[in-house]
From TrEMBL:
Gene3D superfamilies: alpha/beta hydrolase. Keywords: Membrane, Secreted, Transmembrane, Transmembrane helix. The keyword Heme does not apply. This is Esterase family protein. It comes from Mycolicibacterium boenickei. Its main location: secreted.
Length: 453
C-alpha cells in the first residue's frame, strides 16, 4: 500500500492545504487595482458567482439529485470559481505578467476546490489513490482476466485472495446498453472444476456510478478477501453490475424511458452468472446489496422477484424509485405512466404480493448525531427504512433497521457493507459461514440525515 492510500480527500491536511493555497492565489489575482476597476468588476464577479450558485442549486433541486443539504463550502467554491473567471477575463488587459499568471492559476484551482467540496458531500473519492485509480482507469484490486481464471481452475491453483474478472454480459433479453461489468470470485471458487456452487450477491452503486465503484470507492475487495481468509477461502461470488449505462443516467433500476435496467439485472445478469460461473441458481443463493440509489434498487428488485432473490441489504435507499417528486418521477422514469410506477414501487409491490416465505432484508442508515448533539430531524431515508421494514414484517419479510455513525458517503457505505456481510453470507448459506440472526433494529434510526442519491 503506497503513501497515497493514506491521504484522505475527505478531511485532513490535503483538502485544507489545497483550499488555503487557492485562497492565497485568488487574493493575489484580485489584488488592488484601480478604484474604478474594483467598483466595476468586483460586483460583477460577485454577481456571476451568485448566479452560478443559484443555477447549480436550481439544477440539483429540479432534477431531484439530492436530498441532504450540500456543505457550505461547495457553494462558497462555486461562487469563487465564478469570481476567478471574471477576474481573469476582466483583469487581463493592463495587468503585469505575475498577476496574469496568478489569475490563470486561480481558475483551475477554484474548480479543484469545488470538486473537493463536492467530494466531501458524496464521498466518491475517499483517498488520493482512489481518485488516481479512477481517473486513470488503473487496475482494480485482485484484477485478472477470464483466460487466467479458467487456467487456474483447470490446474487447481487456489489463490490466497479472490480474483476480479471483467465480463461482457450480453443484453439479449433487455436490449439495455451497458458498460463492462465485473465478477469477484473467492478463493474457494477455484477449489474444483467445475466450481462449487456458491451463493451470489449483486452489487449496485449510487445514482452517479461506474460498475467499479464498490471496488474503488467502497473498498469491498479487501473486505471480501479478509472475510474469505477468515472462512477457509469461502465467501459469496459478487457481480458488480451497471444499472445506468452511463455515469449520470439515473434509471433507478426500473424499466422505462431511460432504459430497461430492471430487465438487464434480472434477465441478463442472473442467467449469465448461473450459466458461466456455476453459482447457486435458486433464489436461496442470491442476494442484492445497494448503496443510496442502489439501496432502493436492492429492496425493489428483491420484493418484485422473490423467485430470484432471497436477501437484500439496502444502504440508505429511498422509499421507492426517486427522481424528484412523485409526479416528476413518474414523468422522468416512466413517461407519465402511473401504472408503471406502481409496478416498481416497493410498498405497492409488497401489498400486492401478499406473504413472502423466504425473503430477508437489512436496512442500514447513517447517523450524523454526535455526543450531546442528536440529529435535528427524522428524514426520508430513515422513514423509508422503518416504513419498508414495518410493512415487510407484516408480509413475512424478516428485516432490521441498523444505524451506523457517519454521513452519506462511500466510507459509510463501505462500513455498512462490512457490518452486513457476515449476516448476508450466512443467510445465503455460504459454506463455512455460520448463519447469524438479524441485529435488533436501532432505536435511533429515526434520527438520520436525509441522503443524497
Amino acid at each position: 500500500m503506497t503513501f497515497t492510500h493514506h491521504l484522505s480527500l475527505m478531511h485532513g491536511w490535503v483538502p485544507t492545504s489545497v483550499q488555503v493555497i487557492t485562497a492565497v492565489v485568488l487574493i493575489a489575482a484580485i489584488g488592488w487595482r484601480t478604484r474604478r476597476w474594483a467598483l466595476m468588476w468586483l460586483p460583477l464577479a460577485a454577481a456571476v458567482g451568485g448566479i452560478l450558485v443559484a443555477g447549480t442549486n436550481w439544477y440539483i433541486e429540479s432534477e431531484g439529485l439530492a436530498g441532504n443539504p450540500a456543505p457550505r463550502s461547495l457553494w462558497v467554491w462555486i461562487a469563487l470559481s465564478g469570481v476567478a473567471i471574471v477576474v481573469l477575463l476582466a483583469g487581463w488587459r493592463g495587468s503585469r505578467w505575475w498577476r496574469r499568471g496568478t489569475a490563470v492559476m486561480a481558475v483551475p484551482m477554484t474548480l479543484l476546490c469545488t470538486a473537493l467540496a463536492l467530494n466531501l458531500w458524496v464521498g466518491y473519492f475517499p483517498w488520493v489513490q482512489t481518485a488516481w485509480n479512477q481517473l486513470t482507469a488503473g487496475p482494480l484490486p485482485d484484477q485478472t482476466d477470464q483466460v487466467t481464471v479458467a487456467a487456474m481452475q483447470r490446474q487447481g491453483t487456489i489463490p490466497a485472495k479472490g480474483r476480479v474478472v471483467p465480463v461482457e454480459i450480453p443484453n439479449t433479453a433487455s436490449g439495455f446498453r451497458h458498460r463492462g461489468e465485473y465478477v469477484y470470485l473467492p478463493p474457494a471458487w477455484f477449489a474444483s472444476n467445475p466450481a462449487p456452487q456458491l451463493p451470489t450477491v449483486m452489487m449496485i452503486g449510487g445514482e452517479f456510478n461506474t460498475p467499479a465503484d464498490w471496488m474503488r470507492a467502497g473498498n469491498v475487495v479487501k473486505t471480501l478477501d479478509d472475510f474469505a481468509a477468515a472462512h477457509h477461502g469461502y465467501a459469496p461470488v459478487l457481480v458488480f453490475v451497471d444499472p445506468g449505462g452511463t455515469f449520470n443516467n439515473d434509471t433507478e433500476c426500473v424499466n422505462g424511458k431511460r432504459g430497461n435496467s430492471a430487465d438487464h439485472l434480472t434477465k441478463d445478469v442472473v442467467p449469465y452468472m448461473n450459466t458461466h460461473y456455476g453459482v447457486k441458481p435458486a433464489a436461496a443463493g442470491w442476494g442484492i446489496v445497494g448503496w443510496s440509489m442502489g439501496g432502493t434498487c436492492a429492496v425493489d428488485l428483491a420484493v418484485m422477484h422473490p423467485e430470484l432473490f432471497s436477501a437484500f441489504v439496502d444502504i440508505a435507499g429511498d422509499i421507492g424509485p426517486n427522481s424528484g417528486t412523485k409526479a416528476q418521477t413518474i414523468d422522468r422514469l416512466f413517461g407519465g405512466n402511473a401504472a408503471a410506477w406502481d409496478a416498481f414501487d416497493p410498498s405497492t409491490v409488497i401489498n400486492r404480493h401478499g406473504q413472502y416465505d423466504q425473503t430477508a432484508g437489512w436496512f442500514d442508515v447513517n447517523d450524523t448525531s454526535t455526543a450531546g448533539k442528536p440529529a435535528s430531524r427524522a428524514n426520508d431515508q430513515a422513514k423509508a427504512a422503518n416504513a419498508l421494514c414495518a410493512l415487510g414484517s407484516k408480509h413475512g419479510i424478516a428485516c432490521a433497521v441498523v444505524t451506523h455513525q457517519g454521513t452519506h458517503d462511500w466510507p459509510f457505505a463501505s462500513h455498512a457493507f462490512n457490518a452486513a456481510l457476515p449476516w448476508l453470507a450466512g443467510v445465503l448459506d455460504t459454506p463455512q459461514v455460520p448463519p447469524i440472526g438479524l441485529p435488533q433494529s436501532s432505536p435511533s434510526a429515526a434520527y438520520i440525515q436525509t441522503a443524497a442519491k
